[in-house]
Amino acid sequence: MRIGELSRRTGVSERSLRYYEQQGLLGPRRRPSGYREYVESDLDVVRRIRTLLAAGLSTAIIAEVLPCMVDDGERLVPACPELAVELDRERDRITGHIDELTDARAMLTEIIAATAASHPAADDCEVLDAAAGPRRRQPVAR
DNA sequence: ATTCTGACA
DNA sequence: TGTCAGAA
After folding, report:
1. What pLDDT score was predicted for residue A134?
2. Distance CA A76, CA A87 (A)
3. Which nucleotide across the nucleic acid strands is nearest to A5, CA versus C1'?
4. Count of CA atoms in the C-beta half-sphere (13 A) of A87
5. Fewer C-beta neighbours within 10 Å, C or N terminus of chain A?
6. CA of A52: how far to CAs of A55, A61, A112, in Å?
7. Residues in domain HTH merR-type (predicted)?
8. Reduced to 3 states, what is the DSSP secondary structure of residue A78?
9. Which of chain C's bases lie under 7 Å from a protein CB?
């Protein structure tokens, strides 16, 4: 199948599909026309990629881990032993990231408190409004 | 009609 | 990641 069909069947944009290939996550063969030719099994590969991406793994890590993962239809199951340590390391990396963000938030909270203290009537402060920005919250990619 | 690559008011 | 251009 060509990229258009894979895109429709997986719900993943053609743009992302080409990007995954650049990252070494997919290796479709080419038709003489230069068009990418995917196989049925690529459908599962793409699903695995999406799952791993949603788990917060980088494409580099996914490239290493992908061939060691098999989809039993419901969940991803590790097929290699060294995979466990690799994933555990990623988990710690993500935990570290969370800690950094938690610290950053705490510092901002203090600064905001100090600002409010010195500016009792700042409810019409354009700078603060801009800083607050459009508080939008996006759902986790799936 | 589809896909490809490269680039970004 | 979207999206548009210019070519095949």
Report:
1. 62
2. 13
3. B2
4. 16
5. C
6. 5, 9, 37
7. 1-68
8. strand
9. 1-3
Secondary structure letter of residue A98 according to DSSP = H
Looking at the C1' of nucleotide C8, which residue has the nearest alpha carbon?
A33
A102 class by beta-carbon count within 10 Å (0-12 exposed, 13-18 middle, 19+ buried): exposed
Give the best-scoring range by mean pLDDT among A28-42, A51-65, A68-82, A107-121. A28-42
Residues A105-129, mean pLDDT to the nearest whole number: 79
pLDDT tens profile A52-100: 999 889 999 999 988 888 777 777 777 788 888 888 999 999 899 999 9
Phi and psi based region of residue A53 (left: phi greater than 0; alpha: psi -120 to 50; beta: remaining): alpha
